[in-house]
Known about the structure:
The chain has 634 residues and is an alpha/beta fold. The chain folds into two domains: 3-310 and 390-483, Rossmann fold, CATH 3.40.50; 504-627, ANL, C-terminal domain (GMP Synthetase, Chain A, domain 3), CATH 3.30.300.30. The strands form ten sheets. It has a seven-stranded mixed sheet, sandwiched between helices. The longest helix has 17 residues, at 88-104. It starts with a helix and ends in a 7-residue tail after the last helix.
Amino acid sequence: MSKYQTLFEQSVNNPEQFWQLAAENIDWYKPFDKTLETEYQASGRWFSGGQMNTCYNAVDRHVKAGRGAQAAIIYDSPVTQTVRKISYAELQRLTAEFAGALLAQGVKKGDRVIIYMPMVPEALVAMLSCARLGAVHSVVFGGFAANELATRIDDAKPKVILSASCGIEVNRQIHYKPLLDEALDLASHQVDKCIILQRPQHFAKLNELHQQDIDWNEAISLAEPVDCTPVAATDPLYILYTSGTTGQPRGVVRDNGGHAVAMQWSMTNIYNNKPGDVYWAASDIGWVVGHSYICYAPLIAGCTTLIYEGKPVSTPDAGAFWRVVNDHQVKTLFTAPTAIRAIKKEDPEGSFLSQYDTSSLQNLFLAGERSDPDTLAWAEKLLSIPVIDHWWQTETAWAIAGNPMGIEPQQIKHGSAGLPMPGYNVQILDDEGDIKATGEMGNIVVKLPLPPSCFSTLWQNAERFHESYMATFPGYYLSGDSGYIDNDGYVWVMGRIDDVINVAGHRLSTGAIEEVLSSHPAVAECAVFGVIDQLKGELPLGLVILKTGVTDSEDKILTEIIQRARDQIGPVAAFKQVAIVNRLPKTRSGKILRGIMKKIANGETFKTPATIDDPAILDEVATALIDLGYPKTA
């Protein structure tokens, strides 16, 4: 067997031995008594009895090892024209001081702290300082709507909220304090203090509506630095509310010990990074990618992590990412497919790349939504490096399927998320729970127990945890995604279970149709979803965004797209409805909101998701659907 196959077999046949060995790369105050407990819960509980501290593993141990002078954080903000480097020694001082500030405000082990901040170094300091005390942080995307922030306040019941005066976008500022004040008015739970970072671009008025505000620097000046607090490996590190949450929040709970072990392991074995390497996850701390691969994993592994306050385009142009790679000698870039599509749309020929030296970049990883083969091939050709799509979820914190570049690079198959990563026994089940044949579409599940760092429960809702993820197929974690496994063991994630449409009895993946549409040379991005049809039950409908500089007529392009779908999917898809739009509705993490567009087309009522990037796009989509005759009237 190959090295990858050997490790994978070890991880699923003897997970205790596999992860016990991996845990040796983490510093423990007290060794764990038991590597894996399955009696506690079916999903598994890791390293019970052990004591450690995540902040110590991410910061202090590197200083103790003599690497305090190495850069821990590089902050690059094109929107403020700022670059700042923070060494591990300085980060240790900052986290010790701010943990002291939290302690002075009454925050202790087990208390919750909400972090509502922009992409600035202080946001990472806030997260690490909570971990230093053993407090449980819950990061809410900066600028989130007040009512949604209020629901998270009521669910997490924080003692303190950490925020900033503003967030800065390309052409505007978002003032956080009025949103926070409104959320506090809406929430039933009342916090003790709000610690506010004043940014030079905008000063917020403190204590104007609420009397618990305190300035960030003042809070630090009133406190003494503190050391790391030992916590149980099974104690919660953070709560993260899943993107797209509406109604009652769904708070994913991450433990300390299993998380640290998996973060260290993945940085070495999946991303092929070693201490001192510059690792850039071009995401936001409000999402799981930001938790795992901006804050925790790079620092636990002793790398330099990059915080980027900007966009893939327009800050100032489609060469923004290449400029950052050039300036900071980035070795690994991890971003969403939508970011690469945005660059491809604005700069189809990749002309901006020639302005920069990107020779330091060894791998580009994509995740967050399925990467269509055309975009992946475009990036491969442009960069001449491996471009790797991999699949994981908020619930898992790291890759379920991917390409283990640090173990043994595998063949890249365009359209596939790669091979199951060690620890994940991925299977495909039909709706009755039977294993599907190789190559057949079905429900993607993971056989229990889940590996370390996967969520242990939902915050204060163990029943919902069981019903949502474990009850459908006993003995398996239900991912909510559909797809298949091919003859070589590669996982093909074709979309959410709800994205499989039924056309006259034929089950079709919208992801497969999108793959065909995106292969048209004029198409930059697309989305396909099912609409109600009285004759066939459902029909696929497509919306496409064209690349900048396309000269063919829209009618010609639409005709070619329809013909291409007929040729490659077949007449069974009955694909005849497609429109050109300027934008697609997405979450701030880049996921296309197909479900909402489907409801608009079918004339159903819906609630605008809290995570939507720009609600105005829904009106543009509705106009395009009206032109196609939707919603249909009886």
